[in-house]
Amino acid sequence: MEFTLDTFISLAGLLLGSGGGAFFTWRYMRRKAKAEAVSAEVEATKEMQDMYQQMVQDAQSDREHYRSERNELRGIVGTLEEEMRSMKKLWTDKEIETDRKIAQLGRKVEAMRPFLCGDMLCKKRQRVQVLGNEESEYEGIDEVKKEGV
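The structure corresponding to this sequence follows.
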């Protein structure tokens, strides 16, 4: 096997022409693939950043929504507390008024006692017990009640 100058030239031409082109093409394709991978990674990072940004905005809007709802519920509770206070005061005032009226009626009944008599036909006005649970001072009162007079 003899190697001549023509062989080397044709071999160099072959390597540079077709074989060398394949080497440069391979390097170009490798760089292009790396660039596409980096570009895809950048795009994915941008999408993740957009997603996180949207999540932050959603969280802030939810926070505002819950804050306004909380404030509204606090207002309702305050209103209900105020209504309860006013109702309690009204109830207490009515209870005091009722006790006052009962005491007034008790004094009226006590004042009328000398004029009460268990016997409707009696002119003497004997003292009787007004309450049904106590024994009457007038002995004939039970008989009068039984007769229906």
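The chain has two domains: 7-115, 116-149.
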